[in-house]
Amino acid sequence: MPQSPAFTISGRRVFGDNTASFQLTFTNPDDQALVQAYEWYLDGILIIEAEDDSFAEQVTCGTHTISVRVLSNNTWSGTQELGFETCKGAGILVVDLFNNATLNVIGLIDNAEVAYSHVAAYAGVNIIPAGAEPANALVLASDFIDQPTLNWRFEFNIAKLLTNYPQSTSFVFYIDGRASAPVAVFGAFILKTFASQMTLIGSAGSYIPSVSGNNLGSSVSFTSDLVGGADGSHTEADLTMIIKLVYDVASATISYITRKSIPIDSDFDFMTVKYAWDHGGTDLDIMVGFENNGTTDDFIYVGYGQPNATVPANTVPQTDAYLWWGSDNTTIAGNENVLIGINQFVAGHGGLPDVVEVGLYAVWFGQPATGDFTVQLVTYKGGTMSQSGTDFVNTGGTQVSSVTINANTQIHNSLSTPANAYKVGTLKYTRSTATAVIVIN
């Protein structure tokens, strides 16, 4: 009996309004010519009008299942299905910065597929793309806002991005800047509903973006470190990150990181990285791997879903490994750990750059709540390291340093790949000085 052609349903799982659209993709494109008929079902009910390889209809707001089968060689295939939600997605992201009048600050989109990616909006260049109506722009930027607290505002048009780039799984936004002197800056961001619309009030020199529409969730406050040296430049290369925000299309949620560069004391023998959570969600999965060092051991990660607990694979003893994962923790309050063999990695590779990089990632396997977790980097001098549960302990040595970073993400999946996880930051170890920093950037 001839086999039915293999196919999948392509489309988003979250739609901001009540219009849903899906497309069939055939594993072998030539198989589509064999199809005699299509049958689409919404929540198990046959859709009479849907008779080709795509579906685009208005449906009621809520949770649904779309399914489809095809007829070829006078035989119906099995049914493929996909769950989705309507009237859920965000429309506008609003980011405010408080109490700093000295900023040279820009906002931009960081998606290669998006037109005007890395085209900055800032005071005096308030609308991207230039000349667009505010409601149809991708980014709006305020001029300086002379208020007791609020001084700067940026808005990003998520609804337009979702419409223009339906295959994108996430959208990345940056606020970069400098102040007159190094100082902490305080800010907040909030999502607005899909039906919201961006507006621009005031006139040139005093523009303030605004939004007509309702909030989608609560405002989130943040703190970031500013670098000094503001000189009037709004060139991206002259500025440093204040906050990076990632909108996850599937969950309609925002993850973010703020700028922080934390020094780690030199002269250590062992280094551990500990991810810990306390009811921020269930089962945080971690991934740690060397990156961008020009070695065959780069971009090989340890953590849940990875091929091995050590890099190189199956290192004996495990304390000689470049990376050693301490095993999975599936609880709502716990930790996962990796022993990072920086010294072993350097000794095992010639021609390394002076700065060795290690990528740090996380994703919730279980349902996130607040999404909060911490990352702690601890170094030790002397003694021996051993595994205790999911943790690593030092016996007979001395703790040299310990730094802890607060992090947050709502990204939730079981794909076990860095591309589908949240990048907390990069550990950068400088060989010439035997010092390290964690760069949240």
Question: Can you give a write-up of this model?
Answer:
The structure is a single chain. The protein is mostly beta strands and 441 residues long. It has helices at 158-164, 342-347, and strands at residues 7-10, 14-15, 19-26, 35-42, 45-46, 54-58, 62-72, 75-76, 80-86, 90-98, 104-109, 127-128, 139-141, 150-157, 170-178, 183-193, 197-201, 208-212, 220-226, 240-248, 253-258, 260-264, 270-278, 284-291, 301-303, 310-311, 323-325, 333-340, 355-364, 372-381, 384-388, 391-395, 398-408, 422-430, 435-440. Strands 2, 4, 5, 7, 8 and 9 form a six-stranded mixed beta sheet that branches. A six-stranded antiparallel beta sheet has the order 12-13-14-10-16-19. The longest helix has 7 residues, at 158-164. 39% of the residues are buried.
Kindly summarize this structure in a few lines.
This protein has 441 residues and is mostly beta strands. The protein has two helices and 35 strands.
Topology:
Layout: E1 7-10, E2 14-15, E3 19-26, E4 35-42, E5 45-46, E6 54-58, E7 62-72, E8 75-76, E9 80-86, E10 90-98, E11 104-109, E12 127-128, E13 139-141, E14 150-157, H1 158-164, E15 170-178, E16 183-193, E17 197-201, E18 208-212, E19 220-226, E20 240-248, E21 253-258, E22 260-264, E23 270-278, E24 284-291, E25 301-303, E26 310-311, E27 323-325, E28 333-340, H2 342-347, E29 355-364, E30 372-381, E31 384-388, E32 391-395, E33 398-408, E34 422-430, E35 435-440
